[in-house]
Amino acid sequence: MSGTNVLALSGGVGGAKLALGLTHLLPSDSLTVVANTGDDFTHLGLQICPDIDTVIYTLSDLADKERGWGRASETWNFISAMGRLGGEDWFHLGDGDLAMHVYRTERLAAGDTLSEVTSDVALQLGIGARVVPMTDDTVATVVKTPTGELSFQHYFVRDRCEPTVSGFRFEGIEAAAPSPGLAASLNGNLDAILITPSNPFVSIDPILSLSGVGDAISAAPAPVVAVSPIVGGVAIKGPAAKMMAELGMPTEAREVARFYEGLIDGFVIDRRDEDQAPAIEAIGMAVWVTDTVMNDLEDRITLARECCRFAEELAA
Amino acid sequence: MSGTNVLALSGGVGGAKLALGLTHLLPSDSLTVVANTGDDFTHLGLQICPDIDTVIYTLSDLADKERGWGRASETWNFISAMGRLGGEDWFHLGDGDLAMHVYRTERLAAGDTLSEVTSDVALQLGIGARVVPMTDDTVATVVKTPTGELSFQHYFVRDRCEPTVSGFRFEGIEAAAPSPGLAASLNGNLDAILITPSNPFVSIDPILSLSGVGDAISAAPAPVVAVSPIVGGVAIKGPAAKMMAELGMPTEAREVARFYEGLIDGFVIDRRDEDQAPAIEAIGMAVWVTDTVMNDLEDRITLARECCRFAEELAA
């Protein structure tokens, strides 16, 4: 895959796993991973960017593989002491993880951009791929529910995704510019654009909704390939399937394909959803059937390779 | 000692130990401990108040008794991760301790005063005594050295007190007002003012240098008693003796008495310095000889009791 330039759109866990697979296939200077920042929030005075951090920790092999977020071998003295002081302790910040938030908050306060801080941290942790935030501006995903709106982390962590979802909006999206790294990648010589199996509504859609980004991806000469986060009717991780059901969508891979209609050229589905291939092809996109569940590093590399092969085939 | 109102001036370790002894003698509503804030600094974007925290941790029994600062059973994942990210890691912030700095920084940013935050934290941790900062304004102790000035924590922690000291100044002291709690205590019905065996130059002098505070203490009808931090020619903890030598002062208890001349009515010295009593009395103050080294809780209570008896005797 030498010389192949790939842009991967990522949320947290699923996106980070596929990105890790890609780093094992591609030369480090040919991969750009753009992370959703709609989940970002200021908490306890700290600027927290969950998706950037999951990507960074995964690519630097610091991630906790069981938990799915935060760092391995983590301790929790900070958040326990915070509760004892009467502070908010519903968002579990690990002691080591906290260094990221404190470091970032200090640098942002000093006038550095999120792109600069992210790039420096990635370099410091030995990550070769470019990891870029979707924007250096503030965008906040808001979850609409029948009883009112919730900020994303209140919905996701504090309320454990329990409220029924009726829609989403991305506060600040109109005024937000794509980050320099995202813009450079879109304007560069791309061989493939991969939409990782992160949550379509709250991880990928914020990136696509940035000014010009969805259009640039639709119009890109490079093939655009998405991987279904829905396998066998359920989401591998997170609330994607629950959200689909609440939004009145059948929880099937083909519904995700329909969500990306007009944007992508090919859709990767799991073998157990092979029967949906004709319906997806009928939407007007190619389908690639493979094993999409990434349990170990080997799975991640294999899925990354399959995606690249699919893109090559689409480009041919 | 019921009904006795005591104001104790404190820096870090030595002051906190004596304050703890006092809490075992006095009804909780009759003790005010005013902590030096000249050591405070903003580090990694966090507002750090070492002396307030040492007092708070000591009075709430959270302090590490061996190390002399920070919390017991502490972990260090944060500062280790910070170093890995390329951030500053010379100031060792423990994981549990960090909750205090993050909580305080957030509340101060929201517009609360340092007095309010300190009072709430003390209450939350079950401390009965009033713990108050010397001021809610910013005062920064600057250490003068032959090669230039150093901020206090750079001198104290980063440079391990190695630079030679030629003097001190307290930046912002002219504009700083005594905190409401300190002012209320000084204006109230005090039975004793205790200057704990904290560093005279960098822990006690900032408090005394606040507008009106030195004068109010000198003029107070209540007896003012100080405890020598120098015992047998050395400082029990910290750089007091080294500073004295560098400032051209003999490192003896009587030199500390001379430093407080005109301010205090009585000076408490250790038995091993009993031979200095006549010289100290010649300055114009009473002397009380006892065991002043506080190794355990019993020592702290005993020294607190001796100080109160001395004050009672002076008031008689």
Can you walk me through this structure?
The structure is a homodimer. With about 325 residues, chain A is an alpha/beta fold. The first copy, chain A, has a single domain, classed as Rossmann fold (3-Layer(aba) Sandwich). Chain A is built from 13 helices and 14 strands. In chain A, a hairpin with a 2-residue loop joins strand 11 (about 230) and strand 12. In chain A, helix 1 (about 15-25) runs parallel beside helix 2 and helix 4 packs across helix 5 (about 115-125). The mean pLDDT of chain A is about 95. At the A-B interface, helix 3, helix 4 and helix 5 of A face helix 3, helix 4 and helix 5 of B.
Short description:
The first copy, chain A, is α/β, with parallel strands linked by helices and 316 residues long. Chain A is built from 13 helices and 14 strands.
Task: Itemize the secondary structure elements and their pairings.
The structure is a homodimer of 316-residue chains.
Chain A: E1 6-10, H1 13-23, E2 31-35, E3 41-43, E4 46-48, H2 50-59, H3 77-84, H4 95-109, H5 114-124, E5 130-133, E6 140-145, E7 148-151, H6 152-158, E8 167-171, H7 180-187, E9 192-195, H8 200-209, H9 213-219, E10 224-227, E11 230-231, E12 234-235, H10 240-246, H11 253-259, E13 266-270, H12 277-283, E14 286-290, H13 297-315
Parallel strand pairs in A: 1-2, 1-9, 2-5, 9-10, 10-13, 13-14
Antiparallel strand pairs in A: 3-4, 6-7, 6-8, 11-12
Helix pairs in contact in A: 1-2, 1-13, 4-5
